[in-house]
C-alpha cells in the first residue's frame, strides 16, 4: 500500500492525506479505481489528525450543510463501508442557539428548525430544548434563559486519527500511499491533466484531486486555478477539573464560538474536558504543534467556563495549536474545473470538514468519476 517509488501511475492522484482526501480515496477505490495518495506531512499528521472529532446530524445553517451533516453522521454510525471504523462516542450532541424573547422556543429562527427537520428526515433523533430543560438534563452546564439547544442523543465525537487510519485500511487494496512526499506541480499537456510532479518523482494519472487544505492554493495555481484560501488559527485545550463532568455532551455554542466534549486518557484513566473557541486570527503558520500558550489557554477558558463552570479553575494538561483553510464566505466546495480537464478540488471547510467528510469524499469521488468518463 505504501511506497516512495521514483514514479507511479494510477487512475487518480489524490493530493492531501487529511480526512477529505482519505474519504475520497476510499470511495474511489470502492468504485474500482486505482489511487495514488500523496501527502507532505504524512497521513492524518496535519489538522485532520488532531481534530476534536465532533459529529452531529444538525447544522444550524440548514440547506445542503444540514443534509451533509445528517448523512455524515449516518456514515459514522454505520462505521464505514465495512463496519470497521471506530464507534461514535455517543455522549449526545447539544448545539446552543439563540431563543426568542424570554427564552421562548417559538422565537428560534427558521434555519434552526429546518436543520432539525433535516436531521429527522435523515432518520436521526433531534429535539429543541429551552434553557431550563437543558440545565435539568445536564447539571454541569450553565445556560442562560436567552438560549435554546438542539439535542441529539446519537451524536458525539470520534478519535479523528483513528478514523483516518480506518479509512486508509478500507482503501488498502487499490491504494498506493506516498507519505512525506510533496506535490510540486500539476502536470498538464494541452488542456488536460496528466498527473502531478512530486519530490519523489512524477505520478501519471488522468485525474487529479487536490484536497490539501491551505497548501491546495499553491498547487492549484500551477494549473492556472486560483483558490482564495487563507490559513486561520484553530486549537483547543484539555482541561482537568477537580471532578470530571460525566454528564457532558458534545457541545457547540453558536453564540460564542465555543465547543467542548469529554476527554479521557485510556492509559492513565484520567478524565477531563477538551474545549476550544473559534479564532478569527488568519495568516498563521501552516503547522501543528502540541500544547497551547498561556494566553490561548486563558482566551479559551474565559469563554468555555461560561457554559461549563467547572473549567473556571481547572488545570490544563494538554492542547493543540493548528490551522484550517479559510474560504471566502465560509463555504467549502467540490469543483470539477473545465480547464484543465481532469482537475477536481475539494477545499475550504474552515475546520468543519470532519463531520461531513464521508459526504464530501463521496461528492469528490463522483466528480472524479465524471471527469474520467
UniProtKB/TrEMBL annotation:
<keyword id="KW-0560">Oxidoreductase</keyword>
<dbReference type="GO" id="GO:0016491">
    <property type="term" value="F:oxidoreductase activity"/>
</dbReference>
<feature type="domain" description="FAD dependent oxidoreductase">
    <location>
        <begin position="11"/>
        <end position="366"/>
    </location>
</feature>
<dbReference type="InterPro" id="IPR006076">
    <property type="entry name" value="FAD-dep_OxRdtase"/>
</dbReference>
<protein>
    <submittedName>
        <fullName>FAD-dependent oxidoreductase</fullName>
    </submittedName>
</protein>
<dbReference type="GO" id="GO:0005737">
    <property type="term" value="C:cytoplasm"/>
</dbReference>
<dbReference type="InterPro" id="IPR036188">
    <property type="entry name" value="FAD/NAD-bd_sf"/>
</dbReference>
<dbReference type="Pfam" id="PF01266">
    <property type="entry name" value="DAO"/>
</dbReference>
Amino acid at each position: 500500500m505504501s511506497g516512495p517509488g521514483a514514479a507511479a501511475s494510477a487512475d487518480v492522484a489524490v493530493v492531501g492525506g487529511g480526512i477529505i482526501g482519505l474519504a475520497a480515496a476510499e470511495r474511489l477505490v470502492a468504485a474500482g479505481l486505482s489511487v495514488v495518495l500523496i501527502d507532505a506531512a504524512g497521513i492524518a499528521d496535519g489538522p485532520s489528525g488532531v481534530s476534536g472529532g465532533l459529529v452531529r446530524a444538525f447544522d444550524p445553517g440548514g440547506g445542503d450543510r444540514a443534509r451533509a451533516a445528517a448523512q455524515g453522521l449516518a456514515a459514522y454510525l454505520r462505521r464505514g463501508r465495512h463496519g470497521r471504523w471506530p464507534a461514535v462516542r455517543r455522549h449526545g450532541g447539544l448545539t446552543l442557539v439563540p431563543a426568542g424573547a424570554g427564552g421562548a422556543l417559538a422565537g428560534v429562527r427558521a434555519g434552526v428548525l429546518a436543520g432539525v427537520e433535516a436531521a429527522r428526515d435523515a432518520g436521526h433523533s433531534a429535539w429543541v430544548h429551552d434553557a431550563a430543560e437543558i440545565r435539568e438534563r445536564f447539571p454541569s452546564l450553565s445556560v442562560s434563559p436567552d438560549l435554546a439547544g438542539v439535542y441529539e442523543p446519537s451524536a458525539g465525537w470520534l478519535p479523528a486519527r483513528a478514523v483516518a487510519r480506518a479509512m486508509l485500511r478500507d482503501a488498502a487494496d487499490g491504494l498506493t500511499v506516498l507519505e512525506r512526499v510533496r506535490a510540486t506541480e500539476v502536470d498538464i499537456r494541452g488542456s488536460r491533466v496528466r498527473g502531478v510532479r512530486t519530490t519523489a518523482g512524477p505520478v501519471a494519472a488522468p485525474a487529479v484531486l487536490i484536497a490539501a487544505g491551505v497548501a491546495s492554493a499553491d498547487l492549484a495555481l500551477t494549473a492556472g486555478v486560483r483558490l482564495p484560501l487563507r490559513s486561520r488559527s484553530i486549537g483547543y485545550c484539555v482541561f482537568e477539573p477537580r471532578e470530571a463532568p460525566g454528564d457532558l455532551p458534545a457541545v457547540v455554542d453558536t453564540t460564542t464560538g465555543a465547543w467542548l466534549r469529554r476527554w479521557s486518557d485510556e492509559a492513565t484513566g484520567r478524565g477531563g474536558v477538551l474545549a476550544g473557541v473559534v479564532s478569527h486570527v488568519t495568516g498563521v503558520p501552516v503547522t501543528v504543534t502540541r500544547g497551547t500558550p498561556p494566553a490561548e489557554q486563558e482566551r479559551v477558558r474565559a469563554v468555555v467556563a461560561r457554559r461549563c463552570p467547572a473549567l473556571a479553575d481547572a488545570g490544563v494538561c494538554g492542547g493543540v495549536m493548528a490551522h484550517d483553510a479559510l474560504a471566502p464566505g465560509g463555504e467549502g466546495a467540490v469543483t470539477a474545473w473545465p480547464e484543465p480537464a481532469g482537475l477536481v478540488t475539494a477545499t475550504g471547510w474552515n475546520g468543519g470538514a470532519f463531520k461531513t467528510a464521508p459526504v464530501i469524499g463521496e461528492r469528490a469521488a463522483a466528480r472524479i468519476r465524471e471527469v474520467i468518463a
